Amino acid sequence: MSSNRAARDLDTSRPHSARMYDYYLGGKDHFAVDEQAAETVAAAYPGIFVCARENRAFMHRATRVLAREHGIRQWLDIGTGIPTEPNLHQVAQSVVPDARVVYADNDPLVLKYAERLMRSTPQGRTTYVEADVNDPEALLNAPELAEVLDLDRPVALSLNALMHFVTDEQDPYGIVGRLLAVLPSGSALALSHCTPDFAPDTWQKVTDIYTGAGTSVRFRSRDDVARFFDGLELLDPGVAVGHRWRPDAEPDGAGPLTDAEVSLWTGVGIKP
Question: Which residues fall within 8 angstroms of residue 108, CB to CB, at 6 or more apart?
Fold first, then answer.
């Protein structure tokens, strides 16, 4: 897919989940329509900015833990989104310079910025694959993936704030199972997922906003998120609210975060 095609495929007439997420993070890669939709979400759920920030922070911590404590040197990051530095490969390579990372997304907007994802250390490798999580076989068979990742060695499957965009009808557990099935023992799943558990009425409003904008979502309970880790050995502290998963320090700001503000289940599991 060429960058020219990516530019043609960009639809700026309706809000886009990746651009809205960029707005939540304080980025600049969004349009007025995205800002308007994001502010509508924020009016219903002011914690959305905290949720987005804590999602990124979890990704950083999980990546460092897997690199330092579990010998992981390869990552497959699906649903990459618009690059926000430090990207996953920068975090991984700051710990292990020879880390290899494959980013995957089916969004032309992400392809437009994919060059930012390719700035690897000399010892490591990164690449970008245009692929859809709903077609795991096509992703796993992509030649770009085979050039960077050795599927005979452990790989961390990184699914951050992605699976709540996969509805029950799309078989989310089957998709994750098929991705994990090809990875060897010692591989890992790092996953974050928004939840209505702490404020169901608020998250129903968020669901309605996304659905009304043309993006299907399915925010899930803790038990439903825990199902993604079936058959894996969960690292402590198990499935936890984002800011409670191995925090580096107390969060900056006026006071401690509440679970309702964050509303994000996170976890890391190792394949036996």
Answer: 1, 5, 6, 7, 9, 10
CATH code, domain carrying 190: 3.40.50.150
User: Whole-model pTM above 0.70?
Assistant: yes
Which residues, including other chains, have CB under 8 Å from residue 136's CB and lie 6 or more apart?
175, 178, 179
DSSP classification of residue 152: T
pLDDT tens figures, 176-199: 999 999 999 999 999 999 999 999
- Concatenating the DSSP letter of every residue in 78-125 gives ES--S--SSPHHHHHHHH-TT-EEEEEE--HHHHHTGGGGG---SSSE
* Domain encompassing residue 105: 12-248+256-270
**How do residues 194-231 score in pLDDT, each as one tens digit?**
999 999 999 999 999 999 988 999 999 999 999 999 99
Per the structure, the count of domains in the chain is 1
